[in-house]
Amino acid sequence: MLDKKKRNTKLSNMTDEEKLEHKRKQMREYMAKRKESDPEFANKQKEYVKKNNQTKYLDKRREYNKTYYERKKNSINELKEKVANLTELIKN
Q1: From residue 19, how far is each of 4, 14, 16, 33, 43 by CA, in Å?
Q2: Domain count for the chain
Q3: 8 A C-beta contact, residue 19 and residue 11
Q4: Measured between alpha carbons, how far is 42 from 32 in angstroms, rounded to an integer?
Q5: What is the mean pLDDT of each run of 10 residues along the chain (92 residues)?
Q6: Which among 19, 39, 21, 18 has a CA at the least distance from the CA of 29?
Q7: Does any domain span residue 11?
Q8: Does the model's pTM come out above 0.70?
Q9: DSSP of 27-69
Q10: CA 54 to CA 72: how far, in whole Å?
């Protein structure tokens, strides 16, 4: 069985989504070749990706902690109110 290679199609025959995917594919290939040929560039890219991912992680973590503690504080206040109501009912 012969492997058929996908024919190159003209950009004018592609839809906008296909054009974007084609460009992404070309950029992935370019970056892979550049990383292979230039170790300094590869190290810079690794550091950039690492820094970017840490920033995203920290932002998500901060947001999670903020909402977590707000919910915890709200639930504690609700429980205090319920306890106050129950003690009031017990006294009566």
Answers
A1: 22, 6, 5, 21, 30
A2: 1
A3: yes
A4: 9
A5: 60 85 94 94 92 83 90 94 92 80
A6: 21
A7: no
A8: no
A9: HHHHHHHHHHH-HHHHHHHHHHHHHHHHHHHHHHHHHHHHHHH
A10: 26
What is the rounded CA–CA span in Å between residue 74 and residue 14? 54
Establish if 61 belongs to a structural domain. yes
Q: Would 89 be classed as within a structural domain?
A: yes
The span from the CA of 22 to the CA of 14, in Å, is 9
* Residues contacting 45, CB < 8 A, separation 6+: 31, 35
For residue 69, what are the CA distances in angstroms to 45, 60, 61? 36, 14, 12
Q: How far apart are CA 24 and CA 83, in angstroms?
A: 60
Q: Is the CB of residue 23 less than 8 Å from the CB of residue 11? A: no
* Residue partners of 34: CB distance under 8 A and separation at least 6: 41
Enter the tokens of residue 33.
Answer: 């070749």
Does the residue 6 lie in any domain? no
Domain containing 58 equals 39-92
